[in-house]
Amino acid sequence: MHKTNAKNKASTSFFALLFAAGLLIGAIVTFYITFQEVNELGDEVATLKSQLSNLTGVQNTTHQTINIYQNATALADIYERVRESVVLVQGTTSDGGVQGSGFVYESSGSTVVITNYHVVHDTSDLSVTFSNGNGYSATMLGSDPYADLAVISVDAPANEFKPVEVVSSSTLRVGEPVIAIGNPYGLVGSLTTGVVSALGRSIEEQNYAGDYSIANIIQTSTPINPGNSGGPLLNAVGNVVGVTTAIVSDSQGLGFAVPSNTILREISALITTGTYEGHSYLGVSGQDMSYDLAQEIGASVTYGWRIASVTAGGPSDGILTSGDIIIALNDSPIRSGDGLASYLEENSLPGESLVITVVRGSSTIDVSVVLGQRPPPPV
Q: 177-266 adopts what CATH topology?
């Protein structure tokens, strides 16, 4: 009986040791296999990361190349699409011949050429030549010296006219690319590019607009030279956002254009009545405020437009006074004379009531003025 029990105990111990050894060996084998699989998986992940990195780099390079290609193509395509709409405008004055640019536009069934007033002012034998070289006699339908705009009727077959699209200039932002097409120095169909460098400028043209400024002007770095005047200023998709109008003598990269909003606002009146009478009139003169001027006069603000004189019998007579500083129109801040002129041009009409915020002495007050109509141009 003792021998049997001893043998059973030995067998049990042997099988227990064998089972434990099996578990140990199984654990070692499992760990080894798992370790190998983890290493292999890590290698595969590293390979995938490397491939993905290379793929991303290739995709970025390809994307940039496509962008550059598309931009270059778009510019050429815009030129091809618009060049037949741009014309050469010529005329004779007492001082000799003049020439400028213009573009074809359709408004309410009337197909006309738009250009600058100063291009056709006091001209005779007016003519328009299309990009194909065909020239025709022309007559001026209407003009607005205060906006330096003129509308021309051309005695040409209908198939010569390729109208462009004029869109609102309200969405323009400083830094946006713009394109000018015109005839600088008689070099027909020349294209130049640049950006919008400022908005809401005012320029003065004493010969045509007297003491009144041409307001809400676009400033651009697009090269503009004599002969470009009257041509279209285009946005990045080839729609007209302005009319190139002036340069600053001896400047580099500084030109100006009448905004397309002025065209859209005036075109109907210019075609049907020959003039535009929607320029509002405040009847004051003055100067921009500055830190130095504020220190000199003891003013509490360094921005705005300080009134120097009020026209007797004008809309502001008895309401505004010399020394008032205009700082807002209808709650829109006014920082300078450019802002004042641009607001009046874009947002008001003769006969409308305007709430003007002024700094008068140590007080800030609101006054109301009914706007008049600007007197006729001096020409």
A: Thrombin, subunit H (2.40.10)
155 carries an active-site annotation: no
Bridge partners, 149 (sequence order): 144
| 86-160 under CATH 3.20.20.70, yes or no | no
Q: Return the sign of the alpha-carbon dihedral for residues 37, 43, 46, 51.
A: negative
Side-chain half-sphere CA neighbours of 354 within 13 A: 28
Asked if 121 is an active-site residue, the reply is no
Of the residues 118, 279, 316, 342, which is catalytic? 118
From 144, 148, 324, 338, the catalytic residue: 148
Alpha-carbon span 362 to 124, nearest angstrom: 57
Q: What is the pLDDT of residues 279-300, one digit of tens each?
A: 999 999 999 999 999 999 999 9
- pLDDT for 47 equals 58
* Residue 2 is a catalytic residue: no
Structural domain 280-373, CATH architecture: Roll (2.30)
Q: What is the pLDDT of residues 65-95, one digit of tens each?
A: 333 334 555 899 999 999 999 999 999 988 8
Asked if residue 328 has pLDDT above 70, the reply is yes
Q: Per-domain residue ranges for the chain?
A: 86-160, 177-266, 280-373
* Secondary structure class of 42 (helix, strand, coil): helix
Q: Which of 229, 280, 316, 342 is catalytic?
A: 229
Q: What are the CA-CA distances from residue 355 to residues 162, 245, 307 (Å)?
A: 44, 32, 16
What is the distance between the alpha carbons of residues 41 and 61, in angstroms, rounded to a whole number? 30
Give me the pLDDT at residue 44, please: 58
Q: In which band, very low, low, confident or very high, does the pLDDT at 348 lie, cut at 50, 70 and 90?
A: very high
Q: Is the pTM of this model over 0.90?
A: no
